[in-house]
Structure formats: C-alpha cells, structure tokens
Design brief:
Strand order of the largest sheet: 4-3-5-6
Number of domains: 1
CATH superfamily: P-loop containing nucleotide triphosphate hydrolases
Keywords: Transferase
Family: Belongs to the sulfotransferase 1 family.
CATH architecture: 3-Layer(aba) Sandwich
Number of helices: 16
Organism: Catharus ustulatus (Russet-backed thrush)
Helix content: 40-55%
GO molecular function: sulfotransferase activity
Distance between the termini: 30 Å
Bound molecules: adenosine-3'-5'-diphosphate
Protein name: Sulfotransferase
Shape: globular
Mean pLDDT: 94
Length: 291
C-alpha cells in the first residue's frame, strides 16, 4: 500500500482542495478557464468520471450532428476547416480556451467539475447543461477498474485500498458525494436537466427523446432509432478502437448496473449507505439515484 500511495501523490496535484491528475489538468489551465466565455447555445454535459460520460457524449454529438443535417459518425473525420478541441473542458493546455473562441456553434463540451469550479459565464448565459449521475457504488466499481487500467491514474493493489481513497476524498476530481450535493443546489434551474445512468440503461429510446427535446432538437422516428442503436454498449464497444484507440477496452468495460455487488464487502456497503444518507438524504438528486 505504501508504493501505491507514492504513486498517487506523484500523479496528482491539488487545486482548491480537490485532487486532479497531472497528465490531464494544470493549475494554469484552471486559471485560464475562469474567464472562459460560454455561449448560450453551447451544449454541456456534466458528469463525474465513470458516470457514463463517453456514452452520453456519443448521444449528444449524434443529436448535434442531426440538428446540423450531418451524417452520423463522420463528425470526427478531422475536417481542417472545422478545428476540434478535446471536449473535456478542464482537460488540456491553458491556450485551449483562446482556440475555442474560433469554434463554430454549437460547441459541445463535457466536464467533471462541480458547478462552483465552472466558469461563471456558463450560469450567467444560462447554457443548457445535461447533468449525468450514477449510483455511487457502481461508479466506484467502475473507477477502480479504470484507475488500474490507465497509467495516468494511481494503481491500486486491492479494491479495499481504492475504497479507502474513494471515501476519503483522495481520488481524481474529489469526493463524489460532495460533487452530488454541490450539483443538487442547481437542479431546479430551468437550464439543467438531470439523467441517471440507470434510467438510460432501462429505456434508452425514452432517454434520448427527452434529451433531444430539452436541447430543442427535433427527431424523426428513424433518426431516434439510429441514435439509440449507435449508443448501445455493444455497438460503442465494437466501435471503440476507432473512437478511443488503445483505450477502447478501458472505457467500455462492462456497461452494467449493480456490478458493485461483485466487489463490496458488507462493511463497505454500509459505509457507503451511511455517507449517502449524510450527504444526500431527502435531496432531489438523492431521490433520483437508484441503489
Ligand atoms: P463500467 O466500468 O461499469 O463498465 P465514463 O465514460 O464517464 O468514463 O464512464 C464509463 C462507464 O460507462 C463504464 O462503466 C462504461 O462501460 C460505461 N458505458 C460506456 N458506454 C456505455 C453504453 N453505451 N451503455 C452503458 N454503459 C456504457
């Protein structure tokens, strides 16, 4: 476990009390992000790591492509006249936000940040935000496997070691329970729509329909079916070498609900329930999250 802690401290830095991986983020970029000017027609997906952000990114980029009458699946072809930026807002170099000024609308971005760490222009300009949340136990399970699969994140010898870090605010992007209770303060705003990983697993067609309606994107039945088909776990996994290169297998692991039952001890289960109660009992997001 000692080697594992060293590994963690070398790979992360802290900004405003929250740990982030040095390979993806920097204090300089965070500083530059503060003055980022959001546009009212930006499309933002907010979700903590491992909540299914790649899944919803695919759905949203398909919906945007449909709204622009483009052919689905061709938007990543690297058209030189339409420069692209890595959609994860806080990931990249500090000059990224200057370059983003030149991107055509609608710009699509994803963020793992809490609302208080996002640029204030997002809320001032009432940018529409899709907030994605996932059962914390499944999210922790997913994060554990991901952390061990990606060199940029600490590796853990045992699940117990990871669990300890997860509940003591030591993993990348900080404590998920705090993340949820911060976002809970925003869920009533008209520009925010919340979806759960679990409801999307249950009925993808309904989820996609509601998301399209929220962003004001009309869909024919055929277009809806196409987006639904393209966003199945099997189809995204099959396509993952093309979309995610060598990381395909790490991002599309199992795609299931309740996988936490394979890892959690009874004690860990109780501890997580207690933390959930303390942070989220009776809140809107708390009620939406299924266990
Ligand atoms: P698991 O590790 O539980 O399989 P993120 O994209 O935020 O990193 O989240 C990754 C999680 O979303 C992984 O969870 C991954 O398998 C799951 N996921 C990705 N695409 C999915 C899809 N089309 N349907 C269901 N789950 C998906």
């Amino acid at each position: 476990a000692a080697a594992n802690l060293k590994n963690r401290d070398e790979l992360m830095f802290s900004y405003k009390g929250i740990p982030y991986p040095t390979s993806f983020c920097s204090p300089e970029a965070f500083k530059a992000l503060e003055s980022f000017e959001a546009r009212s027609d930006d499309v933002i997906l907010a979700g903590y790591p491992k909540s299914g952000t790649n899944w919803l990114s695919q759905i949203l980029t398909d919906l945007i492509a449909i709204s622009q009458k483009k052919t689905l699946g061709e938007e990543r072809s690297g058209n030189a006249e339409e420069p692209e930026e890595f959609p994860y807002l806080e990931v990249g170099d500090p000059e990224k936000y200057e370059r983003m000024i030149k991107l055509p609308s609608p710009r699509f971005m994803v963020t793992h940040l809490r609302p208080e760490n996002l640029p204030t222009s997002i809320f001032k300009n009432k940018v529409k935000i899709l907030l994605l949340i996932r059962n914390p136990k499944d999210l922790a399970t997913s994060f554990y496997h991901f952390s061990n699969g990606l060199a940029a994140l600490p590796s853990y010898e045992t699940w117990d070691d990871f669990f300890t870090d997860f509940v003591s605010k030591k993993i990348a992007w900080g404590c998920y329970f705090e993340y949820l209770s911060e976002w809970n303060k925003y869920v009533d705003k008209e520009n925010i729509m919340t979806v759960t990983y679990e409801e999307l697993k249950e009925n993808r067609a309904l989820g996609v329909k509601n998301i399209a309606a929220f962003f004001g994107i009309p869909l024919t039945e055929k277009e809806l079916q196409l987006v639904v088909e393209r966003s199945s776990f099997q189809s995204m996994k099959k396509n993952s070498e093309k979309t995610h290169g060598a990381f395909g297998n790490i991002f599309f692991r199992k795609g299931a609900v309740s996988d936490w039952k394979n890892l959690f001890s009874e004690d860990q289960n109780e501890k997580m329930d207690k933390m959930f109660e303390e942070c989220l009992a009776g809140t809107k997001l708390g009620k939406k999250l299924k266990y």
